[in-house]
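request received
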Amino acid sequence: MTDWDVLGGRAPVGIDTTVAHSARVYDYWLGGRDNFPADRELAERIITAVPDMRAMARANRDFLGRAVTHLVTEGGIRQFVDIGTGIPTAGNTFEVAQELAPECRVLYVDNDPIVLTHARAIFSSHPAGRTDYVLGDLRRPSEILTHPVFERIIDRDRPIGLLLVAVLMLFEDAEDPWAMVRTLVDALPSGSYLALTHPSGDFAPAEVALAVRAAEQARVTLVPRPRAQVARFLDGLEPVGPGLVPVLGWGEVAPGTDVNAAYYYGAVARKP
Ligand SMILES: C[S@@+](CC[C@H](N)C(=O)[O-])C[C@H]1O[C@@H](n2cnc3c(N)ncnc32)[C@H](O)[C@@H]1O
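response:
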């Protein structure tokens, strides 16, 4: 039973269920139950455009797990800021990190109050570590960085793993998501990492264009970007592993994998 069931299917305060929201659309693709008719309608319309969308959402989610594993085991990271957290599902950041190092701390940031309805799941930290949540907007990174909960959870003097997984495509170029990332990265101490994923039309332009049109009609911003524009998010950072590659090609790749089967790029990069 989810917290959503506990609420008896009623929308938590602050949620407009008549408009699709990226967190709930993504939840639907991952097989979750925290979504409404408007979310399901858009999710299905995108599946019509991109038939393997469910598998692609899982591939993106799996990248998150591999990136966090890499940061804990190879990068020595013990604290994470996960912006655009999403609705809790299997393999949440704190579960992956604390399984490897129980003292890990995770600060979640999301602008969808429905994530708060999962407080029990989010806050069930290993006693050696900590997790907390900020209802915040990536459009205002300074507010995230100066939030009192950020101060409580994150030690600014120790390297941080900043996670921006499947969230940057929700901003138009005119909103300058590169500046949002720059503000955050500038605040990280040396030795910190940024892990990101981003959908791209490079893999299948016609399918992705149809998905963008479906999102537009549902008043949801969806901006897939060519690889060169995604690479700009990593300016000044040193990519580790294979660099900026299709998410299915990052980390250990099983023989025979078609790495272009999920239309997301992913990268993990270190701040020198
Ligand atoms: C597609 S989901 C990705 C979830 C998770 N990062 C993953 O990849 O599994 C995008 C998330 O970004 C959140 N989000 C959307 N706009 C945001 C904003 N302006 N600030 C913070 N979070 C935002 C959504 O609520 C949603 O939870």
